[in-house]
Amino acid sequence: MKVVRWVVAVAVLAYVVYGGYYFLSQNSMVFPVWNVHSVPIDPATVPGLHDFELSDGNARVDAWYLTPLDSSGAPVTFTGDSTGAADGSAPPYPAPLLVIAHGNAALIDDWRGDLGPVRQAGAGILLVEYPGYGRSRGQPSQKRIVNLFAAGYDSVAAWGWADTTRAAFAGRSLGGGVACALAQRRPNDALILLSTFTSVRSFAADYYLPGFLVTNPFDNLAVLETYSKPVLLVHALDDTTVPYAHSRALHETAANSTLITREHGGHNTLEGHWDEFWTETGVPFLVEAGVLAAE
Description:
The protein is α/β, with parallel strands linked by helices. The chain is built from seven helices and eight strands. The chain is globular, with a radius of gyration of 21 Å.
């Protein structure tokens, strides 16, 4: 019996050490800043980009507002008196707003060339960087990121750049968690979730750990249980990073959702196909949701 007790005690201790290791290292797994291989760019080189900073006292992050584009693809010129905007400009009218949150191994810089069709459809785009990513400073966490996104939303609304009565939130992978959390904090009319999970807690079982140890849960399933506005879900069948079953569960939970299944492409199923996605799927969805005006 002593041997049995000793073996059990050693096993329990080993499991506690194992669980403690993952508990302490989970932030670097959810936010793998060390694995971000994107190359930051100079915002001044992106047509129609207005950059400003957001801070919560501990983190200071970049935020970009991309103006709508005219029919020729040129940025809509901002005119008028200053309304307090960071660069002293004001748009001719508040534009419909699309807030986009990137994945956990990306930067806002990665979106610079992928939004032409939705900008030409009249949307202004808000991109907010995560603390510790790219040019930004601070430690990332769910609470901090969502607070900074809410501050960015409030800023572009206060400056008269964005019409928040016509707003949609979009997120890819981890960004879907940001979009869902923001949807509980700020008025919006639609969600676009790309390769998104039900909750970070759902992955704890893969490590034989209880979900309550997860400190940044991003519980998208709980959000969609009470979300009644249109939701667009896109997921690849052969995604091995976030299995397709996650979007299926989100689709079955949301009261008003559309699930588009892609046969190929894995977790990065839309890479290289953004023009096609926005033109054929994203923009029509936003028009139907009342965020963008029909042509």
